[in-house]
Design brief:
Layout: E1 6-9, E2 16-17, E3 20-21, H1 23-34, E4 40-43, H2 50-58, E5 69-71, H3 72-83, E6 88-92, H4 95-103, E7 107-108, E8 115-118, H5 126-137, E9 141-144, E10 150-153, E11 156-159, H6 161-172, E12 177-178, H7 185-194, E13 201-205, H8 208-218, E14 221-225, H9 232-235, E15 244-246
Parallel strand pairs: 1-4, 1-13, 4-5, 6-7, 6-8, 8-9, 9-12, 13-14, 14-15
Antiparallel strand pairs: 2-3, 10-11
Cofactor: Mg(2+)
Keywords: Hydrolase, Magnesium, Metal-binding
Binding site for Mg(2+): 10, 12, 206
Length: 254
């Protein structure tokens, strides 16, 4: 299947599960690269830098340029640079978001700020949440990297960034602007930077509510793979259908 120029793949549940690569996805990436196509990787993970994500998938025998890895942190930093240049920013987050903001020379503060941006922060505390709420009540723009309410670790499902974002939203009464899937900001960034037409792009993933819907919102083709969050039979019951439903990405290696 070589009908597209920009293959945009989700990571967790599509390319790997935790630290374990999904062989069919690795083989598909190699297939694309052997045909001169360099895929993109689109993830809601805001905690890791592009370099860290690049190193993680390199250990799985996937070798790509760092610019082909787009995270919700990158989308947030781009959005702040475009819409709030020179404004002070209060950040809740980890190294992935910190690195993305620094790359755009965003001015950060620990005091009341013009912009609040939230990513997953496993050292979150009452003081950070208070500063975020006070800033937003004073008129700060409210941005969140993603709306994921939970994510898996070795213990099971633990609170995601969306859960903490909802706490701040509930306290302030202000809805955030979400950067991650199912919003289309990351796909729009790829399209604008590389000049693709929508018909040249496809979003591939295992999660209907994030991966497939972000492609639908973008107006591009989508492919659901039966390797993670949603099974094919669940997806086939949805009102808006993906363009393709695949058992695995081996289905597209001819």
């Amino acid at each position: 299947m070589l009908n597209y120029k920009a293959y945009c793949l989700d990571l967790d549940g599509t390319v790997y599960r935790g630290k374990t690569p999904i062989k069919e996805a690795v083989d598909f990436v190699h297939y694309l690269q052997s045909n001169g196509i360099e895929p993109f990787f689109v993830t809601n993970n805001s905690s890791m830098t592009q370099k860290q994500l690049q190193e993680k998938i390199a250990k799985m025998d996937i070798h790509v340029e760092v610019d082909h890895i787009i995270s919700s942190s990158i989308a947030a930093a781009n959005y702040i640079e475009e819409h709030f240049p020179k404004k002070s920013v209060f950040m809740i987050g980890e190294i992935g978001l910190q690195d993305a903001l620094a790359a755009k020379q965003v001015v950060r503060t620990e005091a009341i700020a013009d912009v609040v941006v939230m990513g997953i922060d496993r050292a979150i505390n009452y003081e950070k949440l208070s500063t975020a709420c006070l800033s937003i009540r004073a008129g700060a723009a409210f941005i969140s990297t993603n709306s994921d309410h939970a994510f898996p670790d070795e213990r099971g499902l633990v609170p995601g960034n969306g859960a903490f974002t909802k706490l701040v939203e509930y306290s302030t009464g202000v809805e955030p602007i979400y950067m991650g899937k199912p919003e289309a900001f990351m796909l729009e960034f790829i399209q604008e930077k590389y000049g693709y037409k929508k018909e040249e792009m496809i979003m591939i993933g295992d999660n209907y509510s994030t991966d497939i819907l972000t492609g639908i919102h973008m107006g591009i083709h989508t492919a659901h793979v039966n390797s993670g969050v949603n099974r094919t039979e669940e997806v086939q019951m949805k009102l808006s259908q993906p363009t393709y439903c695949l058992e695995s990405l081996h289905d597209w290696i001819k």
